[in-house]
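Recap from last week: sequence in, structure out.
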Amino acid sequence: MIKVEDLKKSFGENEVLKKNINVEIEQQEVVVVIGPSGSGKSTFLRCLNGLEDITDGHVYIEGVDIADKKSDINKIRTEVGMVFQQFNLFPHKTVMENITLSPLKVRKISKEQAQEKGVTVAQSWFGR
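Predicted structure tokens:
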């Protein structure tokens, strides 16, 4: 579960996330963040993944406060995925190799397991 409490983010004098953001996202729940360009959507997502320091408030991933210096952010990131707006695939790899790279390297699962999961995900996306 992801729990956000009173999240604020500023870059110097520029308040990007001005209002205290509070939200709880359950495991397996799908949430969409929408808004006009420049409204802070990407900044919010980057705060959830610890890619931006939080100015104020808390973000908990499975009960762990990601802003706590004692937290192992890399371990937390193994459970939190993010696709960037300008994502880049490795051009020298196949689609399946791009999809399975992270599970192989981060989760250390077998190539067969990663490919099986990749096919399942692709089928759910494309209905095949």
